[in-house]
From TrEMBL:
Sample GO molecular function, one term: phosphoenolpyruvate carboxylase activity
Record EC number: 4.1.1.31
Organism field: Microbacterium luteolum
Keywords: Carbon dioxide fixation, Lyase, Magnesium
PROSITE patterns: PEPCASE_1 (PS00781)
Cofactor: Mg(2+)
Oligomeric and partner information: Homotetramer.
General function of this protein: Forms oxaloacetate, a four-carbon dicarboxylic acid source for the tricarboxylic acid cycle.
Family note: Belongs to the PEPCase type 1 family.
Active site (UniProt): 167, 560
Protein name from the UniProt record: Phosphoenolpyruvate carboxylase
Lineage, broadest ranks: Bacteria, Bacillati, Actinomycetota, Actinomycetes, Micrococcales
Catalysed reactions listed for this entry: oxaloacetate + phosphate = phosphoenolpyruvate + hydrogencarbonate
Keyword Magnesium: yes
């Protein structure tokens, strides 16, 4: 008798009742429930067609058991679910894991579709959104506090600067993402079609075909992507969403601020978005990112933006059929045409024949041709710099406005101007990141006068490539140089010294950005910065930029260093000190937040995090890293991207409102003693775990840490060293990813329960949760992290290691933290104060449990094989099952690292 047969199987009628009750109990909106059921039904049909009724029934057996186990904690359903997972052959377990993973992709799609549906409904009903949620309402509040002139000045200086990274946290293959995007389009078509009509039937048939493609597409990459592959993947987000969406964000805000005047006169909204990229530029610990890769990354991005500008100019130019009699051109526009006609008479004659007496149309088509020449490298016919194209567009805009065609001037032409201001000829502002130790080693070699290593030659070649990119595309295209693990001011000066070694007086323009990552470095940051700005190169560059300085803060390593609670408090303190120093020094500071997608790496809602920052640490400028699955979740769909940008920009603007700064600083002072107790006790508790003898190998045993390194997620190696004997060499992403897969999520919450228990005063802590933005954000994020944990699953993973003391420590802290978070947030369970988020987690949890059980059986088999005499543990089938389950759990939890 198999383990599965030792439990009575429910009847089909009972299965339908249990599953129906579960779905109804999650509070899913009717439209979304309909989408989930339809997509799930189509997946079921695909499973029957591809694997037969037996596969479908096996999937349903495990699904029903995990739902019952989730709803009935005291029943034997969990043991039955585990027994079912164990009963499958490896081949069947593989298919079941793939089925659940496909289901998660479809549920995620339905949820995204519902978000878009709600956003579109709200767009037609002004006033429904919260006052802090849009730039328009944040601006109105700012006006009331600081007056019209100051509010306009702050709006003009607004800047939101996401930086896309290639950190390996997107577990889906690009082919899978593309299939999901096609399904999204079909779901939209299905919504728009008449009920039960031919178009709706066609959409369902094509969805069935696409789900079949999703099922039959290998879910795992066969090999790691190269850095260039990563560049092209990110370019897809620009092509499909951001290039056209960002100007629509500006327009929507201008519409909200100016009403009917928007589009008929100059906008008040600046092009406040800048997109940065580390993809192809971040070489810290990644030997595959070379100078030639950086050059190619810049070329690929430039090609994409120039093609986009060419198409946009051509499209708007063709619609600008305004006759010269009614809309006469200005002298500047006439001169633009005559200059082109003299240089290229044949092409000018062709354009004139196609656009007779339509001077503005002809000139925009000329500008499209000049952009095409720029893309092809024709320096004689193309533009040397984006500023030249902007000047020509503004000449056309002024000409149209002066001739009375104001809606054309501040409509389509303004849209083009916004695109050039945002993206230039480079699309992304490519940033370089390198470890300070690499610079020290290179300088030691160069100053010794001996033959230099290949690594040092590569360091020097990078500066030559930066100079080349700047010559071709301007200083914005590549100029920021991030020094990771900055530990002294000399680490920053070393970058300029190396640039001089490479190019002498022809060194490129460089904005050297310190990255403070560890707890000790965060503490030392103000002193390091005070010394760095005395260096001649820093003084000269700051004089050119209006005394601007950028400083990066690392969330990942600081959290792994002292635990999530102490790290959050240390980051706040560091920002407070750096911001105070910058203000006293009359420096315009931009803090660059190295946030990840997971909570252990600074993840969570960005807008609430912004409003929890210290006074003057934002001042209208917010820059952060975006990576992996977060890039696609926030920027992959136009309506969601618009909403996200609007929310973050609103919070960035509102953070400097006097009332917000007073609230934040007042709370920090009022609860300073609470912070001190939480810092000391949480750190002590964290150290009791991670500094325990044998912790690192135990961690590698009770989580799929080693196996995660086998996933072909990104080009970057998973760890800095070769051993797991020490956490120092382990990167923050696998640290977070491994705990997430084990359903423990320890990196996001460990130590908080002990910290709150040490304070002990429930009334004081309830008041602090209400009034102290930093604590509220921390606890709300931990609540989300805890909601994705599962103690029964966690116990199974912890049992893989022979350390009851460490397992007990983890479980005790989990229980204590959960108890305190529920007590402070209110209600009887987690996330009761955030019902939409609670629904999303609860909808997925039992299905994630199914994949976790499959992962556990594979992990046990691999661990057992490794322990056998002479065993390697490298059973290919079990290893594949484990990796499939890792991908599926990542899809179900919607985050990795």
């Amino acid at each position: 008798m198999t383990p599965a047969q030792s439990f009575p199987e429910p009847t089909n009628t009972e299965a339908i009742r249990v599953i129906g009750r579960f779905e109804a109990g999650q509070g899913i909106p009717d439209a979304m429930r309909s989408d989930v059921r339809m997509l799930g039904g189509l997946l079921g049909q695909v499973l029957r067609e591809a694997g037969g009724d037996d596969l479908f029934e096996d999937v349903e057996r495990l699904r029903l058991a995990t739902i019952q186990a989730y709803e009935e904690e005291n029943s034997d359903a969990f043991e039955r679910a585990a027994a079912i997972a164990e009963s499958f052959t490896v081949a069947r377990a593989d298919e079941v894991a793939r089925a659940f993973t496909c289901y998660f992709h479809l549920v995620n799609l339905a949820e995204e579709h519902q978000r878009v549906r709600v956003l579109r409904e709200r767009a037609g009903q002004p006033g429904r959104e919260d006052a802090a949620d849009t730039v328009a309402t944040a601006y109105a509040r700012l006006q009331s506090e600081v007056g019209d002139d100051e509010a306009r000045r702050r709006l003009a200086g607004l800047r939101f600067h996401p930086v896309f990274t290639a950190h390996p946290t997107e577990a889906r293959r690009r082919a899978v993402s593309s299939s999901i995007r096609r399904l999204s389009e079909l779901l939209t078509q299905h919504d728009a079609a008449s009920e039960r009509g031919a178009e709706q039937h066609r959409a369902r048939r094509r969805m069935l075909e696409e789900i079949d493609t999703l099922w039959r597409t290998a879910p795992l990459r066969s090999q790691k992507p190269s850095p260039t592959d990563e560049v092209r993947t990110v370019m897809g987000v620009f092509d499909e969403t951001l290039f056209t969406t960002v100007p629509h964000v500006y327009r929507r805000i201008d519409d909200a601020l100016r009403g009917e005047d928007s589009g008929s006169s100059a906008p008040v909204v600046p092009a406040f978005v800048r997109i940065g990229s580390w993809v192809g530029g971040d070489r810290d610990g990644n030997p595959f990112v070379t100078a030639s890769v950086t050059r190619e990354a810049s070329q690929i991005a430039a090609d994409h933006v120039l093609r986009g500008l060419e198409r946009a100019l051509d499209r708007i130019g063709r619609t600008l059929t305004l006759a010269a009699d009614d809309t006469p051109p200005s002298a500047d526009v006439t001169a633009l045409w005559e200059g082109f006609a003299a240089a290229e008479p044949d092409v000018a004659a062709e354009l004139a024949a196609r656009s007779p007496e339509e001077p503005h149309r002809r000139v925009l088509l000329v500008l499209a041709r000049r952009v095409a020449a720029t893309r092809s490298g024709d320096r004689e016919r193309g533009y040397a710099r984006p500023e030249e194209l902007l000047a020509d567009l503004r000449a056309v805009q002024t000409s149209l406005a002066d001739a009375g065609a104001k809606r054309h001037a501040f409509g389509g032409v303004q849209h083009l101007i916004w695109q050039v201001e945002t993206y230039g000829f480079h699309l992304t502002e490519l940033e370089v990141r390198q470890h300070s130790q690499v610079h020290r080693k290179a300088l030691a070699e160069l100053e010794a006068g001996d033959a230099i290593s290949a690594q040092t030659e590569e360091v020097l070649e990078l500066f030559r490539v930066i100079a080349e990119i700047q010559r071709d595309r301007g200083a914005r295209a590549a100029g920021r140089y991030v020094v990771s693990f900055t530990q002294s001011a000399s680490d920053l000066a070393n970058v300029h010294r190396l640039a001089r070694h490479a190019l002498g007086d022809d060194a490129p323009v460089l904005d050297v950005v310190p990255l403070f990552e560890t707890f000790a470095d965060l503490q030392a940051a103000p002193e390091i910065l005070a010394e760095a700005v005395t260096f001649p190169e820093f003084r000269a560059r700051m004089a050119e930029t209006g005394n601007r300085l950028e400083v990066m803060l690392g969330y990942s390593d600081s959290s792994k260093d002292v635990g999530p609670v102490a790290a959050n408090l240390a980051l706040y303190e560091a920002q407070e000190k750096i911001a105070r120093w910058a203000q006293e020094s009359d420096i315009e500071l931009t803090l660059f937040h190295g946030r990840g997608g997971a909570l252990g790496r600074g993840g969570g809602p960005a807008n609430s995090a912004i409003l929890a920052q210290p006074p003057h640490s934002v001042d209208g400028r917010f820059k952060l890293t975006e990576q992996g699955e977060v890039i696609f979740a926030r920027y992959g769909e136009p309506a969601i991207a618009m909403r996200h940008i609007d929310q973050v920009a609103a919070a960035t603007l509102l953070a400097s409102a006097p009332s917000e700064e007073a609230r934040t600083s007042g709370a920090a002072a009022r609860y300073a003693e609470v912070a001190s107790i939480m810092d000391a006790t949480s750190r002590e508790r964290f150290f009791s775990l991670v500094k325990a003898e044998g912790f690192a190998p135990w961690f590698a045993t009770v989580t799929p840490l080693e196996e995660i390194g086998l996933l072909a997620l990104g080009s970057r190696p998973a760890r800095r060293g070769l051993s797991v004997e020490s956490l120092e060499d382990l990167r923050a992403i696998p640290w977070v990813f491994a705990w997430t897969q084990a359903r423990i999520n320890l990196a996001g919450w460990f130590g908080l329960g002990t910290a709150l228990e040490a304070v002990g005063d429930v009334e004081l802590l309830t008041e602090a949760y209400r009034d102290w933005p930093l604590l509220r954000t921390m606890i709300d994020n931990v609540a989300m992290s805890l909601a994705k944990t599962d103690e029964r699953i966690a116990r199974q993973y912890l049992a893989l290691g022979d350390r009851d003391d460490l397992a007990t420590l983890v479980l005790d802290e989990l229980a204590l933290t959960r108890q305190w978070v529920i007590r402070l947030t209110g209600g009887e369970g987690l996330l009761e104060n955030k019902p939409v988020l609670q629904r999303a987690v609860q909808l997925r949890s039992p299905y994630v449990d199914a994949l976790s059980l499959l992962q556990l059986r594979a992990l046990r088999a691999l661990r057992s094989a490794a322990e056998e005499a002479g065993g390697s543990g490298a059973d290919a089938e079990q290893q594949r099952l484990l990796l499939l389950s890792v991908s599926g759990v990542a899809a179900g939890l919607q985050n990795t690292g």
